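Structure tokens please, single chain.
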Amino acid sequence: MYDGHKSHASIDWINLAIEHRIILFTLPSHTTHRLQPLDVGCFGPLQTAWFNRCDEIMAATGEAMSLRDVVKEYWECRKQAFK
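Here you go.
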């Protein structure tokens, strides 16, 4: 799955996909910000959960998240977003 903008595919790339029996699915050019499934269904909600958690920590402590808590907090956000 890829953005159909002409700069993102070459005939060599397409032939390689055909040779390896890979089906290419093209999204319309300049629309992936709205249509790309992973951005809309997965990473958008993850980004929202992450920003919300960062805001919650800042509101509760008056400080940014500590570096030692980043992984723990990320995994909690990931669990929320990837239901």
